[in-house]
C-alpha cells in the first residue's frame, strides 16, 4: 500500500485508478468510476450504485474475459495482468494488439477490440462497440456475437429498445457514404469501400434489423451505428425491409440499403443520394444530384442522372449509365459482362481486375477508360493478381480521352474517336531474385488500338501480344518499343494514317509491319539495349507511304557490323545488324547510327544522316544533301565514298573533339588543305592528294599529332563550309 493514504467521509462518488501493483479497490454506495492500473492482479468491488470499471491493458498478450450474470462477477486477464470484479454495472474495456476475447456484463458496456481479430460479446443492456482503423496496416476483423438491432419498422418495441446496441466507428475514413453491408450466410459483414483492412461481422444478424431512427413525439432517437464526429444518432442511413417493393427512397440526401429483391428504385431530384442495391437485379435511377449508386449482387442497371455521380457495378452483368456531368463508373473486380456508358462530361470508367467482356464508352468529354492491372509476388507468399482477363471494348468518343489496358490478358479493342487521345496497352516486367520480388504488368492479348481523328498516342510498349495500332487522322505517336528487360517479341502492325506520325519499334524482337500513310512520317527502329539482339531473325518492314518520310535506326548494342543496300530506281532498301533486318520502301530520308564494328551504311535518294560510330566504316550518302556524323576523332577511319563538296556536310562534336571548337560553322582559319597544320588555329586538314581528312587538336605537332578520322575522294573542293559543329 505504500505510505500514501487518504481518509474520507461524506463522499457520494469515487473515481479511483489502480497502480501497476496488486490493488484492492472497493467502491461506496454511490455511482463510482473505477479503473485498473496497467499491471498487477487486482480485486475490485463496485459496491452499491451504478458503477463503471475501465480496463486498458497495454500488455503483451490478448485479453480473455469471463462473466457470471447470476452473481454479477467476472474476470479480465491479459498475460500476468488480471482483475477480478463484482458489483460492476458497466464495463469499459479497450483491447490489445492481439486477438482479444472480450465479454461485457449485464449493463450498458463500452467494448473496443483494438488491433487484431477480436471477438466481442456485449451481454444484456445497451452496449456500445467501438471500432477504428487508425492502425491501418495491422487492423483486421471484429466479430460481435450478440449485437442487438433496431429491428424492422419505425416503432420498435420496448424489448428491442432495451437490448439495442450501438456500433461506433471513430476513424475519419469510416463514413456512411462508403459503408457496405453484405449478408454472408447468417451473418452481416460491415466493410467500407476502399478500406480493405476494416471489417466488422455481426453474427446471426439480418440486414433489415439494422437501422437508425430519428426522434419522434413518442420515442427518442435510437440507432445502431454512429460515425466519426457524430455525438448522437441521426437519420444517417435507411434499410429496406426484406419484403419491401417500394419504388422511392424514404428520405432525401441519405444512405439507403435495398434488399435482395429485384428493385426498381428512383432517387430524389437535386439530392445527393447514396443507394446500395444489395442482392437482386436492380434498376436504380439517381436523378439529379451527386449520387453514389452501388448495384451489389445481381444484374443491375445504374443511371446516374445529371450531377457528378459514382456508379459501382458489383457482381453480375451490369449496365452503368453516368448521364450528364463528370461521373465515375466502376466495375473493378467484376466477373460479369458489363456496359459502362459515360455520357457528356469528363468521366472515369474502370473495369480493373475484371474477368468478363466489358464495353466502356466515353462519349463526349475528356474521359478516362481503364481496364489495367498487374501481377505481383513478394517474399514467396504475398500474391496479388489484378489483371483484367476478358475481351474488352473501350470507346473514347469525342474529347481528349485516356484508354488504358495495361496488364490485361484479353484481346481488347481500344478506339479513341475524335480528340487527342492516349491509348495504352504497355507494361513492364520486373524481377529481383535477391529480394524475391516479381511484378508483371505487360498486356498479353492481341489488341487493336484505333486513334481516330486527332493527335493521338498509341502505346504497346512491352506488350507480349500481336497488336494492331492505327493512328488515323492527325499527327500520331505509335510506340511498341521494348525497354530493357521488357522486350517485345511479337508481331505487330502499325499504321500511321494521315498526318505527320511517329512510329517507334526500337528493341523489338518480332516481325513488325510499319506503314506511315500520308504525311511526313518518322520511323524509329534498332537495337538499343544489351539484350536487344533477337535470337532468331526479326524482320521489320517499313512503308513510308506518301510524304517526306524519315527512317532512323540505332544499333548501339549490335554484336556485328551493319550491312545495308539501296535501289535508287525502286526507292527500296534494307539494313541488317546481327539478326535484326529492316526492309523499307517509299522512305525519303535515313538516319542510321552504326555499331562498334565495321559498318557498310548506304543512304537513300534524300537528305540522309549517317553515323558510323566506332570501327572503320564505309558510308555512302547517295543523292541529296547528306550529313556524315563524327562524335570523336579516335573511333576509327570512315570511308566517305561519294562525298560531294557542293552539297554534303561533316558534323563534328565540339565537346569530344575539343581543341577550342565552338558550336556553329567552322571558322575559315580552323581549316586548311595540305599535309599538316601550318598555324596553331588550324584543326582540320584535308589532303587533296590522298583524300585523307585529319584532326589536329592544337595545330602543332609538338603537343598533339594529327589523327586521320575519315577518307574522302582526292581533289575535292573542300572548305570550312562543309563542316558543322554541334555541342
TrEMBL record:
Disordered: annotated segments: 451-471
Keywords: Membrane, Repeat, Secreted, Toxin, Virulence
Main location: membrane
GO MF annotations, alphabetized: calcium ion binding; toxin activity
Compartments in which it is found: Membrane; Secreted
GO terms under cellular component: extracellular region; membrane
Biased composition (Polar residues): 460-469
Presence of the UniProt keyword Membrane in the record: yes
Protein's UniProt keywords contain Transcription: no
Entry-linked PROSITE patterns: HEMOLYSIN_CALCIUM (PS00330)
Top-level taxonomic group: Bacteria
Alphabetized SUPFAM superfamilies for the sequence: beta-Roll
InterPro entries (UniProt xref): Hemolysin-typ_Ca-bd_CS (IPR018511), Hemolysn_Ca-bd (IPR001343), RTX_toxin/Mannuronan_C5-epim (IPR050557), RTX_toxin_determinant-A (IPR003995), Serralysin-like_metalloprot_C (IPR011049)
PANTHER family: S-LAYER PROTEIN (PTHR38340)
Name of this chain's protein: Calcium-binding protein
Species of provenance: Nostoc punctiforme NIES-2108
